[in-house]
């Protein structure tokens, strides 16, 4: 951790209180940090929702979670790591956001004085991507995801986040990478690049194959394979049907 700064609180943080504070990051300016106290434990996280940047301090604090006031994305605020689902501080737990919050080490070092430690990269970041497993070519299991809307795209990502190391193929008849379809009726002049959920580099880096402009024309559940509009037959171990409505 190569960044350290101090925050003086005017009043101590109360149990079940969230408060946004300014952190002086020197030449990089000021950074807002969300402080949360629950069960006597203090946490420090990014202050803005990773979806559209709502101030989380005005959201709803539940047990171990904060829920965004705008569209309800939910983030873990507990410093205990769940041994079953491996959810860490700041991890996203509910959509529509897809990224987690950056989080920092916080210690009480005096009367109403806190020390915040982080890496310089993390302290300026607005979002954090959960750790993703790498593809292991020795694992032959293949997930075929039929449909490249937000459901299909989230499924592909979450598989890697949950440690799946086999092959993932996302097949979509649209030519575009998965995008936020809800924006189509909000910003009518949206450019596709600005509403894409992830870049092609993201999918390449996490070895998620994207077959765009490709329709699944037939599913053979007996043989566990799908036929594509490109005349290719694709075998699967598991099939996810996320074709929307
Ligand atoms: C203009 C508009 C505005 C919206 N605004 C809002 C909003 O404000 N709030 C809100 O909550 N929701 C909104 N929605 C709804 C929201 O976009 C959907 O709920 C969401 O996109 C559903 O995601 P999905 O991944 O399940 O399905 P979809 O987004 O429908 O994605 C399914 C994908 O599967 C592909 N597909 C289908 N069949 C095949 C096949 N045989 N082979 C290959 N690919 C296939 C489709 O081409 C599509 O890309 C809006 C929708 C639209 C169209
Ligand atoms: S801004 Fe938080 S869920 Fe949309």
UniProtKB/TrEMBL annotation:
It comes from the Eukaryota. InterPro entries: FAD-oxidoreductase/Apoptosis, FAD/NAD-bd_sf, FAD/NAD-binding_dom, Rieske_2Fe-2S, Rieske_2Fe-2S_sf. Transmembrane segments: none annotated. Gene3D superfamilies: FAD/NAD(P)-binding domain, Rieske [2Fe-2S] iron-sulphur domain. Pfam families: Pyr_redox_2 (PF07992), Rieske (PF00355). One of its GO terms (molecular function) is metal ion binding. SUPFAM superfamilies: FAD/NAD(P)-binding domain, ISP domain. Keywords: 2Fe-2S, FAD, Flavoprotein, Iron, Iron-sulfur, Metal-binding, Oxidoreductase. GO terms for cellular component: cytoplasm. Residues 10-115 form the Rieske domain. Its cofactor is FAD. This is (California timema) hypothetical protein. It comes from Timema californicum.
């Amino acid at each position: 951790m190569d960044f350290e700064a101090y925050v003086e609180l005017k009043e101590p943080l109360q149990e079940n209180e969230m408060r946004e504070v300014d952190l002086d990051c020197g030449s990089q300016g000021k950074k807002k940090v969300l402080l949360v106290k629950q069960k006597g434990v203090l946490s420090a996280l990014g202050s803005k929702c990773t979806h559209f940047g709502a101030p989380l301090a005005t959201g709803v604090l539940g047990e171990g979670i904060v829920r965004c006031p705008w569209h309800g994305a939910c983030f873990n605020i507990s410093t205990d790591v769940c041994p079953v689902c491996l959810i860490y501080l700041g991890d996203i737990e509910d959509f529509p956001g897809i990224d987690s919050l950056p989080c920092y080490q916080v210690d009480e070092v005096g009367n109403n004085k806190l020390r915040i430690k982080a890496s310089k990269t993390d302290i300026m970041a607005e979002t954090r991507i959960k750790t993703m497993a790498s593809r292991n070519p020795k694992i032959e299991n293949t997930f075929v995801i039929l449909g490249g809307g937000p459901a299909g795209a989230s499924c592909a990502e979450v598989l890697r986040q949950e440690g799946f190391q086999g092959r993932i193929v996302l097949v979509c008849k649209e030519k575009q990478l998965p995008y936020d379809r809800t924006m189509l009726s909000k910003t009518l002049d949206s450019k596709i690049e600005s509403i894409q959920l992830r870049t092609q580099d993201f999918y390449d880096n996490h070895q998620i194959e994207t077959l765009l402009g490709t329709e699944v024309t037939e599913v053979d559940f007996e043989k566990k394979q799908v036929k594509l509009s490109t005349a290719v037959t694709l075998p699967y171990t598991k099939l996810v049907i996320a074709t929307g409505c």
